[in-house]
Amino acid sequence: MSFLKVEALARRYASSCPAVFENIHFGIERGEFVCILGHSGCGKTTILNVLAGLDEASGGHVFMDGREVRGPSLDRGVVFQSHALMPWMSTLANVEFGVRSRWPDWSREQVAAHATKYLEMVGLGHALHKKPAELSGGMKQRVGIARAFAIEPKMLLLDEPFGALDALTRGTIQDELLGIVQATQQTVFMITHDVDEAILLADKILLMSNGPQAKIAEIVEVTMPRSRTRASIHHDPQYYRIRNHLVVFLVERSKLYAGDAVEGHDPKHPPIVRPGLDAEDADTSNPIAA
Amino acid sequence: MNMTKQKPWLAPLLSLLILLLTLAAWHLATRPKEAAVIVDPEYAALVGGAAATGAKSAFPGPGEVGAKIWSHLKDPFYDKGTNDKGLGIQIGFSLARVLGGYLLAALVAIPLGFAIGMSPLIYRALDPFIQILKPISPLAWMPLALYTIKDSSISAIFVIFICSIWPMLINTAFGVASVRRDWLNVARTLEVSRLRTAFLVILPAAAPTIMTGMRISIGIAWLVIVAAEMLVGGTGIGYFVWNEWNNLSITNIFTAILLIGLVGMLLDTALAKLTRLVSYRE
After folding, report:
1. Which residues are A219's β-sheet partners?
2. A171: nearest Cα among A113, A256, A228, A94
3. What confidence tens digit (pLDDT) does each residue in B158-209 have?
4. Which residue of B has its CA nearest to A81?
5. What angle do CA A30, A36, A39 make, to 5 degrees?
6. Which superfamily does B87-278 belong to?
7. What is the tens place of the pLDDT at every residue in A86-145?
8. Element at A101 (helix H, strand E)
């Protein structure tokens, strides 16, 4: 059984309306980085909130480490899209707030040292005593990441953490996140709209069809070696094949799954594809490229 | 905008000019006139010769008021019996009543406002009572308070309590109810207990709104105390004003009015400073 198991998850707002998403099945292994990609309105954030325990599904179950997820837990750290830092606390106090909740018996010095370590990890050692209002958007999001990592959760949930950042900042923080995740072997589930971000970070990409009645259409395995960097990733021939596959899905195929299932598509076992390993000429016929 | 930046002394200068013009107009209006009428000597003895003949208005000029203020400033705490106490003592009584009623109101309003803000059920259950009680003039409670409490000084404190509770209650409830969902979610994912969330997240998040309510309340309390003390009598700046009206001492009334304004301003400034202390920038 997978480390995280999602079974038949569904969400509907009224019994008369079609479900926003239904029949969502997937699993995440320990140490895996999984991205979920799909258009707005397919319920990605709701799925993440259900995994976090902040929201309840209308049907289905989530199991983590063999136990059903009921309500929020320190085992699952969350990085919010809007960073959600407490503006009256300093950077350090924001991270300490989490650390103290995780280890209530620790002394003040222990808490401060632990929080400082994680802030230094995201390159904010110089801004410990600044208030969030004095930080740039990228720095704020770094604090949010440090806060989530500092409680050393079994799993991290990231809700489009870089959505509000400019491209340059986003790239830098992606690299940092990649480094930290590789060093800590953290299990991560992340929402993104950005195809390149998904390829850079993920081991597996869940492709969601459009809502209503959104489902997982495909699971794309990123077959490139894990030691990727933003600077070198585009030299790998697999990169463009995977990228084309994702773009074609988002532009053309994501809407084909509306209503009844596409023939042969079993939402319980969505097809696992490895476009990176396809033959050289398989995808080049496609005009939508980088 | 630009004017005040380039010449920071301009606004104070204008203020001074307005003050001087007002004082001058006041002086001219109350200047002694030529005696014209012969009056009853008994009446003249009662109100003072000059006033009785119409040569001098009973309304004091700025010089007389200034002299009066100076005499009060020199000896603010004298006590020559029930009806003749220094202004410092009277203001002290008023401040004690205001702070007593106000702090009691804060003790009730802030926890209750928390409960209302956190629970939509409690909000809906209490809303009709709040809506009906809030617009009642605090002085309307006075007879009821005097009848039940039977102590005029505590009745005044009760009136202050009842008038200062509403802004604090409503602002606390609003501030607590509008704490950002994200911050509460952070606390939930960190498994922070409800009590710790209330003190470490909701209270600091709502503090600026709560303090704004407290600032409105202290202003209202200071407005109401004068009227309340006119009714209950005995001590306090409100009683002083009414007593000096009975003495027909307009100079004393003037002095008291200025003092009431000054103390009110100081109270407001103090609360504004406290509000700045708990404000945060997002």
Report:
1. A206, A272
2. A228
3. 999 999 999 999 999 999 999 999 999 999 999 999 999 999 999 999 999 9
4. B182
5. 175
6. MetI-like (1.10.3720.10)
7. 999 999 999 999 999 999 999 999 999 999 999 998 889 999 999 999 999 889 999 999
8. helix A91-102
SS3 assignment for chain B: CHHHHHCCCHHHHHHHHHHHHHHHHHHHHCCCCCCCCCCCHHHHHHHCHHHHCCCCCCCCCHHHHHHHHHHHHHCCCCECCCCCECHHHHHHHHHHHHHHHHHHHHHHHHHHHHHHHHCHHHHHHHHHHHHHHCCCCHHHHHHHHHHHHCCHHHHHHHHHHHHHHHHHHHHHHHHHHCCCHHHHHHHHHCCCCHHHHHHHHHHHHHHHHHHHHHHHHHHHHHHHHHHHHHHHCCCCHHHHHHHHHHCCCHHHHHHHHHHHHHHHHHHHHHHHHHHHHHCCCC
How far apart CA A138 and CA A161 sit, in angstroms, is: 10
- A224 or B57: which leads in pLDDT: A224
Q: What integer pLDDT is reported at residue A285 of this predicted model?
A: 45
- Once rounded to an integer, what is the mean pLDDT over residues A232-260? 85
Q: CA A8, CA A21: separation in Å to the nearest integer?
A: 10
Lowest mean pLDDT among A37-41, A56-60, B5-9, B229-233: B5-9
Nearest CA in chain A to B206: A88
R_g (Cα) of chain A, nearest Å: 19
CA distance A209 to A223: 22
Mutation target for B interface from A80, A86, A134: give the one with most B CBs within 10 A: A86
Distance of CA B79 to the CA centre of its chain: 24
Q: Which class in CATH covers the domain with range A1-75+155-166+186-290? A: alpha beta
Is residue A280 predicted with pLDDT exceeding 70? no
Residue A1 has pLDDT above 80, yes or no: no
Is the minimum CB–CB distance between A220 and chain B shorter than 8 Å?
A: no
Question: B267, B273, B234, B272: which is closest to B98 by C-alpha?
Answer: B267
What percentage of chain A reaches a pLDDT higher than 70?
93
Chain B residue whose CA is closest to A103: B190
CA distance A134 to chain B (A): 9
Query: Is the separation of the CB atoms in B281 and A133 below 8 Å?
Result: yes
- pTM for the model stands at 0.84
Tokens of A166: 């400019």
Per domain, the residue ranges of chain B are: 87-278
For residue A134, give the amino acid letter: E
**pLDDT tens digit string along B69-86?**
888 888 888 888 877 888
Chain B residues touching A80 at Cβ < 8 A: 182, 185-186
ipTM of the complex: 0.87
In this complex, the residue of B185, B189, B281 whose CB is nearest that of residue A87 is B281
How far apart are the C-alpha atoms of B83 and B177, rounded to whole Å?
49
Residue given tokens 């009683």 in the structure block: B239
